[in-house]
Design brief:
By secondary structure, this protein is mainly alpha-helical. The protein has 12 helices and no strands. It has a single domain, classed as Cytochrome Bc1 Complex, Chain C. The structure holds protoporphyrin IX containing FE (HEM).
């Protein structure tokens, strides 16, 4: 007699979505893991210690989720924002006061940006504290450092876009500081602003960096970073002696 689970998993609808039967046997359980893009992000075997929520506090995943929220809310804001010194400020006021859910979108974008900076820094502290930068993970630490710089770069470039007094003077001060860097300072300042002071050229450049260059680089490097975690055998949680006999994915679980 066929059970209900067998009837479901033999149906054409089920087969068109999933490439495995009901996960009630070792073969189908492993197929669930290897044919699902999200489960496949995990290595085949992980140590129990790395599964403890207090090991990583999920900070890397949280940073990835915040990046996703920023991409979605940022795209929605782009429908109303024109990067022109004549229009930018008014567009933001219009977004906040007239567009349905406009204020919510802007606030979500702003808070997610602050949150991402905080979470990425905490994630780096966690990685350092647990010694997860040691071999073979040095490469991923370097990728992480670039991710931190890109996250700060996204915050800095986004700050100018509302084109209010706060943004204008913050970017004036920020780019002046960059101008004092040894050797490259003045050229760097000129390259960022596209002129000698904060104006239309600076707004155009910051906009291009903020909506295309930095998010594109972040997307690429976050993918590389997470793929590298998997290839390095998952999180670097220490395996205790008895834990090594207790690998999740083997018969013990
Ligand atoms: C946009 C910023 C970042 C994102 C989205 C991100 C994402 C992630 C994710 C999802 C993980 C696996 C889960 C976890 O550990 O929580 C991870 C692990 C790791 N991250 Fe990041 N990360 C970022 C920035 C950084 C920074 C700034 C560093 C260090 C400078 C770093 C170094 C590492 C290392 C070495 C691991 C492996 C940790 C281990 O094996 O225990 N990451 N990251």
């Amino acid at each position: 007699m066929t059970t209900w689970s067998q009837r479901i998993t033999r149906s054409r609808v089920w087969r068109s979505f999933f490439r495995h039967g009901w996960p009630d046997n070792p073969l189908d359980r492993s197929l669930v893991m290897t044919t699902n893009i999200f489960f496949h992000l995990h290595p085949v075997k992980v140590s129990r210690a790395s599964l403890k929520a207090t090991y990583s506090f999920g900070l890397g995943i949280l940073a990835t989720i915040l990046f996703g929220i920023l991409a979605i809310t940022g795209t929605l804001i782009m429908f109303y924002y024109v990067p022109s010194t004549e229009r930018a400020y008014e567009d933001i006021i219009f977004l906040q006061t007239k567009v349905p859910y406009g204020q919510l979108m802007r606030n979500m974008h702003r808070w997610a940006a602050h949150g991402m900076v905080l979470v990425v820094v905490l994630h780096m502290v966690r990685v350092f504290y647990t010694g997860a930068y040691k071999p073979p993970r040095e490469f991923n630490w370097i990728v992480g450092v670039i991710l931190l710089l890109l996250t700060l770069g996204a915050s800095f470039t986004g700050y100018l876009l509302p084109w209010d007094q706060l943004s204008y003077w913050a970017i004036t001060v920020g780019t002046n500081i960059a101008g004092y860097a040894p050797f490259i300072g003045p050229d760097l300042r000129m390259m960022l602003l596209g002129g000698v002071e904060v104006g239309q050229n600076a707004l155009t450049r910051f906009y291009a960096l903020h909506i295309m260059v930095i998010p594109g680089a972040l997307l690429l490097l976050i993918s590389l970073h997470i793929w590298r975690v998997r290839k390095d055998g998952g999180l670097a949680a220490q395996r205790k002696a008895e834990d090594s006999l207790n690998i999740v994915g083997e018969e013990t679980l």
